[in-house]
């Protein structure tokens, strides 16, 4: 047993974390029991689990390493990326890791390394038990759907889609995973951070009375920019400089603010009923460099019980900023993590929890619908800011907005923009 196995969030913590948690836990028991009939392999407490990494960039490399740090009876056996240089750098980082155990857990042979846009099919055809999806949001719905068809357990980074069409595809895949008894954990890591888990449990038990209002912020500076190199075609530029393009990452409210919006939904026990938002672009003058995304969003989210949350998401250099959540109740206020004990690094804990779910040594976890709802909460804020119109949850859920090109091809061109002007965007 590794040093992390008995630390951090307990079985009881998870079951009590949210009302939805009870439902997931209950249905998960039924799903897990049915798993043998579905052809999904059962794994005992001591069975070796094999992991594949799809998307070998910064976060994917980090997530794979944290999976190995948290779970010693797991091996990394396969890797894939669109670009060989990214895959090679990731391989080198993990196989030369300073932790001697991680080095031993690295077992990736050349024949299990796959490069290209369609290479996800090859990694899913290997005998891995778990896929870590560290690639980008635009391809998440299609890849997760394929991963469920291939009967793999899943760790997926957030956000899980960039438009409502992708959200519906992802949600359908997550529900299918649940019916097969496949575990799915998402990279909304605060859900695995003891401070948040214990505090939000108390808030939901009435620690600050009835929630009256809240605010959630991610106000930071400009993100990275990779300027186009002469040898890059359009698609390579979009993927390497991904943050700048709405169809790849969903704009800043979706890519980063989803974390804070997820806390809002967690505290409130579900997604908002509507949003009214403003947004624009004052810091990013050049489209080729900064793409077609906004650099500020201000949203007013309203919940079915009439409670409002304000949300700010910004990329402005040289300004005051902050990343936080705060709720105000009839008996006090909370930053959503001030009433919990400290636990394991949540980036490791999420993988410990996933493996415990797969082995049956912890509660069954399928966070697919929950993370899709939080992603759609962010998307509807973007839709409201781009259009200048109030957007309801139903509007967003049934919207046929679909912004990811269906014909990805290195030889085609993918023009940038136009930058949406409120009143005309979608
Ligand atoms: N949970 C967190 O705190 C957290 C932190 C950072 C990033 N992230 C998320 O992680 C994701 C990756 O971010 P990053 O910083 O690692 O980016 P990155 O550019 O370093 O890595 C992304 C990798 O995915 C690869 N890729 C793109 N399309 C692919 C495809 N079709 N098939 C295979 N590989 C493909 C790219 O080539 C690249 O190597 C993003 O969605 C980001 O929002 C989450």
Strand element count: 13
Sequence of strands across the biggest β-sheet? 12-11-7-10-9-8-13
How far the N terminus sits from the C terminus, by CA atoms, comes to 51 Å
| Average of per-residue pLDDT values | 91
CATH architecture of the largest domain: 3-Layer(aba) Sandwich
Query: Mind telling me the CATH superfamily name of the largest domain?
Result: NAD(P)-binding Rossmann-like Domain
Distinct ligand kinds: nicotinamide-adenine-dinucleotide
For this structure, the CATH topology of the largest domain is: Rossmann fold
Question: Helices and strands: which structural class?
Answer: alpha/beta
Spatial extent as radius of gyration: 21 Å
Seen as an oligomer or otherwise, the chain set is single chain
Helix percentage: 40-55%
Largest sheet: 7 strands, mixed
**Low confidence ranges:** 1-35
Figure out the total of helices.
17
- When the domains are counted, the total is 2
Could you name the CATH class of the largest domain?
Alpha Beta
β content, as a range?
Answer: 15-25%
Overall body shape: globular
Order of helices and strands: HHEHEHHEHEHEHEHEHHHHEHEEEEHHEH
């Amino acid at each position: 047993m590794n040093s992390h196995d008995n630390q951090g969030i307990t079985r009881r913590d998870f079951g009590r974390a949210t009302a939805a948690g009870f439902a997931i836990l209950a249905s998960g028991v039924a799903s897990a029991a049915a798993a043998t009939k579905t052809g999904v392999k059962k794994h005992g407490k001591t069975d070796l689990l094999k992991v594949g990494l799809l998307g070998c960039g910064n976060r994917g490399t980090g997530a794979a390493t944290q999976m190995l740090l948290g779970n010693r009876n797991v091996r990394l056996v396969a890797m894939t990326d669109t670009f060989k240089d990214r895959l090679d750098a990731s391989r080198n980082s993990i196989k030369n890791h300073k932790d001697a155990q991680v080095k031993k857990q690295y077992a990736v042979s050349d024949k299990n390394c796959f490069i290209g846009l369609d290479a996800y099919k090859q990694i899913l055809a290997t005998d891995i038990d778990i896929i870590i999806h560290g690639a980008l949001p635009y391809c998440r719905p299609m890849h997760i759907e394929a991963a469920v068809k291939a009967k793999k357990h899943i760790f997926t980074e957030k956000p899980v889609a960039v438009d409502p069409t992708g959200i519906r595809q992802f949600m359908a895949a997550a529900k299918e995973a649940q019916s097969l008894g496949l575990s799915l954990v998402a990279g909304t890591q605060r859900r695995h951070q003891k401070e948040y888990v214990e505090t939000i449990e108390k808030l939901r038990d009435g620690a600050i009375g009835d929630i009256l209002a809240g605010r959630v912020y991610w106000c930071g500076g400009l993100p990275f920019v990779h300027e186009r190199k002469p040898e890059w075609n359009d698609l390579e530029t979009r993927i390497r400089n991904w943050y700048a393009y709405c169809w790849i990452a969903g704009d800043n409210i979706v890519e980063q603010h989803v974390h804070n919006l997820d806390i809002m939904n967690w505290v409130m026990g579900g997604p908002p009923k509507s949003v009214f938002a403003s947004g624009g672009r004052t810091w990013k003058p050049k489209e080729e460099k900064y793409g077609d995304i906004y650099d500020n969003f201000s949203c007013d989210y309203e919940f079915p019980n009439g409670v409002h949350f304000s949300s700010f998401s910004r990329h402005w250099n040289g300004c005051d900023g902050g990343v936080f959540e705060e709720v105000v109740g009839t008996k006090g206020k909370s930053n959503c993590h001030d009433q919990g004990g400290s636990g394991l690094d949540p980036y490791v804990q999420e993988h410990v929890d996933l493996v415990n779910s797969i082995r049956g040594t912890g509660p069954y976890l399928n966070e697919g619908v929950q993370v899709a709802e939080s992603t759609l909460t962010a998307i509807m804020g973007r839709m409201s800011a781009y259009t200048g119109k109030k957007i309801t949850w139903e509007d967003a859920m049934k919207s046929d907005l679909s912004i990811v090109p269906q014909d990805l091809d290195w030889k085609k061109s993918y023009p940038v923009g136009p930058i949406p002007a409120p009143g005309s965007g979608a």
